[in-house]
Amino acid sequence: MVRAFSHYICIDWSGAKGEHHKSIAMAVADAAGGPPVLIQRERGWSRHEVLEVLRDELPRDSFVGVDLGVSLPFADCGRFFPGFADSPQDAEELWALVDRVCLADEHLSAGSFVTHPELGEYFHHGTRKGEHFGCDGAAHKNGRLRVAEHEQAAFGLRPTSNFKLVGASQVGKSSLTGMRVLHRLRDHLSVWPVDPLPQTGPVIAEIYTSIAALAAGRTAATAKIKTREELDAALVALGSPPLGRSGTIDDHSSDALLTAAWMRANAHRPELWSPKGMTRQVARTEGWTFGVP
User: Fold this and answer.
1) Residue 268 covered by a domain
2) Does the residue 101 lie in any domain?
3) Origin, by domain of life (predicted)?
4) Which of 145, 156, 129, 5 has its CA nearest to residue 71?
């Protein structure tokens, strides 16, 4: 049986430059019921503030979903960075490398990683594709994909490689900044599935907010919700009480609110913690997206 959680927290993340970001949104769904609640900061969240909440303020039985990639492709080439002498052996080592290379970058940003003279050659950044952007013919048209991202595509989602740092759909910058946070949380909570699901203590996992939208009857093309009326309809479709408000809402907030409700409704499902394609090697190197079977 899957363990019970008391709080389901979704964080819509951002890899943008600067300190405070309106595009970072945090929502909480209480296991006791009620509509999800948006947790806000007047100037917008900073990545350091989110880190402090995750490190110091989480209820003990929290399940946290963060909308970013917890790792980079590994299985397709047998390494994160083929040809790079110090290529990490697993996700934990990758997080440490990203944080170490970017130590001087302000606000937990990760610009130094993608401009590194060697590591930058693995990314599509700005107008340039690095020399090692692909992998022996195994590259997706948008770059290398993890095993979970191939499964995302089969599930009806639209994954983009974390090595691709251009375009509206890219999540690579968010993922790299998130890896700095994961490294700094290493002694404070478990990161599923890099860590097996523990019986106690807070757990953080990668999520893809469009999964909640699909579960609520929307499509990948209409996953972004811009009105509170649409959000309430989607919440009700997931079995959650509505917010009961009208007017516009930014899609970062609606993503977080809807996904927190989805997590509460689905975290009890054993199959979501044991996806078919997730071997232990894949889990410790590439991670997985919670909700992709």
Assistant:
1) no
2) no
3) Bacteria
4) 145
Predicted TM-score of the model (pTM): 0.95
Residue 63's identity, in one-letter code, is: F
What residues are paired with 205 via a beta bridge? 65, 192
Taking the chain, what is the end-to-end CA distance rounded to the nearest angstrom?
17
Amino acid identity of 24? Answer: I
Max distance between CA atoms of the chain, in angstroms, equals 56
SS3 at position 25: strand
Is residue 157 in some structural domain? no
Instruction: Report d(CA 146, CA 149) in Å as an integer.
Output: 5
Residue 275 lies in a domain: no
CA triple 76-94-168, angle to 5 deg: 70
Phi and psi at residue 190, in whole multiples of 5°?
-90, 140
pLDDT at 147 over 80: yes
User: CA nearest 123: which of 94, 150, 161, 96?
Assistant: 161
Burial of 16 (0-12, 13-18, 19+ CB in 10 A): middle
Give the residue numbers spanning the domain of 28: 7-68+184-261
- What 8-state DSSP symbol labels residue 52? H
Percentage helix, strand, coil for the chain under 3-state DSSP, each rounded to 5 = 35, 15, 50
For 25-64, the pLDDT digits (tens) are 999 999 999 999 999 998 999 999 999 999 999 999 999 9
The pair of three-digit structure tokens given for residue 87, joined into one six-digit string: 């290529």
Return d(Cα 291, Cα 258) in angstroms, integer: 14
Task: Tell me the C-alpha distance between 10 and 64, whole Å.
Answer: 6
Residue appearing with tokens 């363990």: 3
Q: Please give the tally of structural domains in the chain.
A: 1
CB-side neighbour CA atoms (13 Å) of 237: 15
